[in-house]
Design a protein that fits this description.
Helix 1 (2-19) runs antiparallel to helix 2. The chain has helices spanning 2-19, 28-43. By secondary structure, it is mainly α. 62% of the residues lie in helices and 0% in strands. It starts with a helix and ends in a 12-residue tail after the last helix. The longest helix has 18 residues, at 2-19.
């Protein structure tokens, strides 16, 4: 799930960069940083699939 969130954030950052859009504090750099954070958490195993125990 975090990988999908990261991909969406990267897409938004690309659109913001190409269109030159900036919202008060939300810039392409902020979106890139948030995407990298989600990607790092995904690679660390946070937010993975729930594990089921038992039969």
């Amino acid at each position: 799930m975090l990988a999908i969130v990261a991909a969406v954030l990267f897409l938004l950052a690309l659109i913001f960069e190409l269109a030159g859009i900036t919202l008060s504090v939300i810039t392409a750099t902020v979106l890139l940083t948030a995407g990298l954070l989600c990607l790092a958490l995904f690679m660390a195993g946070v937010g993975g699939a729930a594990r089921r125990f038992g039969r």
